[in-house]
Amino acid sequence: MSYGLAVxxxxxxxxxxxxxxxxDLGSPDPFPVIAxxxxxxxxxxxxxxxxxxxxxxxxxxxxxxLPGARVTLAAGALQDDVIEVxxxxxxxxxxxxxxxxxxxxxxxxxxxxxxxxxxxxxRRDIDRTVTSPLGEAGLEMPVYAAGKALAWDxxxxxxxxxxxxxxxxxxxxxxxxxxxxxxxxxxxxxxxxxGxxxxxxxATGADRLxxxxxxLVTAADVVSSxxxxxxxxxxxxASLYGKGIFPTxxxxxxxGVVGHGAITPxxxxxxxxxxxxxxxxxxxxxxxxxxxAGGVLTQILITAPGSYTVAPAFSFAxxxxxxxxxxxxxxxxxxxxxxxxxxxxxxxxLGLYNVSAGPAATDTGIRAATSALLxxxxxxxxLEGLSMPTAKLTEAAGSVSPSVYRSYSFVAGDTIEHIVxxx
Length: 423
Hints:
Elements (H helix, E strand, L loop, with lengths): L10 E5 L6 E3 L14 E7 L2 E4 L6 E4 L8 E4 L8 E6 L17 H22 L22 E5 L4 E5 L11 H33 L5 H29 L1 E5 L2 H5 L1 E6 L11 E4 L1 E3 L2 E12 L2 E15 L2 E3 L13 E5 L6 E7 L2 E8 L3 E10 H14 L9 E3 L8 E4 L12 E2 L2
Parallel strand pairs: 10-18
Antiparallel strand pairs: 1-7, 2-6, 3-4, 3-7, 5-6, 8-9, 11-17, 12-14, 13-16, 14-15, 18-19, 19-20, 21-22, 22-23
Helix pairs in contact: 2-3, 2-5, 3-5
């Protein structure tokens, strides 16, 4: 090259439309290339990143020119394929200058250009590394140790290998949390549906009253407001306090499937999204989905952690023909210390628990039950003067004809004294 080299990261990424084959490297930064072997080309398609092969998958042209070279793909891109071109000139010196002999400007320029490119690519990679502040000693990584995690040593002020518990690593799987909250909301909605049935019974009683025209409208508005309050309260509790609904307290404070290790993509699979299966291990209840694109495994999503003491293994058999795909199951704490969860304490009644150190499940005393909603509707009906089925009442001790009744004790609160003269 017979020109100077401007500052350049020697890295180019481009998102292609379907059918595109050309990637020009000279924009927005100059990216000249001396030889076709001086760059590596990668393609990301449907989440899978693959290194392409020179003279098989692509060719490089416009060498030794500004603003930069051109990469031409052998086959048209699919929509939203991402192409990365990374400068990687081999650190070699093929030329040799003999003492006392002439050498050309072309050779000299090539040597200077090569040295500049080496430094630009080294600077690009050095700028991406972990460094220490100026004046501090350089970072030294400890040797590999299975089952350990990197941690700062407060005395020696360096990284060391430290033990860790599975619960120390938090896996924030948003889809899993959303599913758990949705489950809680679904159960709350079931309670509201039952409450609506009770409201219908109250309305039927109201029709029998002589003054039903005015009081029915008022009572309906009050009952509707109560239902809205209960729904909002239940939704808030499920989203703010509950990590989900678990079959037992042991399952909540125990381990579940919270993630996966590095994916081995495999090959020859059927594309699509499939149900994830689990084999072996000790426990049950985990669920998930996985994605196969371009014949390889690209994504694993855990939708329910289950409860396990020994990790199971993933099975990707749902994708016909997929061979060699693998990933390690990662277990973690379902509900961490300081968090809350729901579990059924009796038929149709959920209890809110807090996880304390140990870990141990501590009952907060908070309940979410359909009976609470029914009792609230009955209370509103009595306060509004609406009729009540006598099955809801108990006869007062010592009463004579006409019988005098009072309301029974509600599941969700104290007895409300309400004297009724039976007609």
